[in-house]
Write a structure and sequence with these properties.
4-stranded antiparallel beta sheet; 6 helices; globular
Length: 136
């Protein structure tokens, strides 16, 4: 049985339109979207980065011990999944950028990919990442 960690990025959202909604109700849905509520909204996530489990653990071990960023990323082994959103961008971007000096070439590649995803979130704060531990 192999294990891996998958970083999935929000690629789009759509409204479940199985039931026709009156125009007034549709405006409530749009307002809810605008303020961040998810009434009948389906998030579509796409896998953007995949790491073997043991290599993920080694990668996050390059983050400063006891740091908030390391504790955040250690949520995957602890809880099985974490969400990374706009609130985590500065902390994680700084930590992974700083850690690159001590990383292998593969870890640097993953850090570059993650930093790119964090940049996407910074540009459009509705984007988020779901990071999950998967077992085959």
């Amino acid at each position: 049985m192999s294990e891996k960690v998958v970083f999935s990025q929000l690629s789009r959202k759509f409204i479940d339109e199985n039931d026709a909604k009156p125009a007034e109700a549709q405006q409530v849905v749009y307002y809810s979207l605008a303020i961040g509520h998810h009434l009948g909204v389906i998030d579509c996530l796409e896998a953007a980065l995949t790491c073997p489990w043991d290599e993920y653990l080694a990668w996050i071990a390059t983050l400063e011990a006891g740091s908030e960023a390391r504790r955040k990323m250690e949520g995957v082994p602890k809880y099985g999944e974490i969400v990374i959103d706009i609130n985590h961008v500065p902390m994680l971007a700084n930590a992974f950028d700083k850690a690159r000096a001590a990383q292998t070439s593969q870890q640097k590649e993953w850090s570059t990919m993650l930093l790119s995803m964090l940049h996407d979130i910074h540009q459009e704060n509705a984007i988020y990442l779901m990071v999950r531990r998967l077992r085959d």
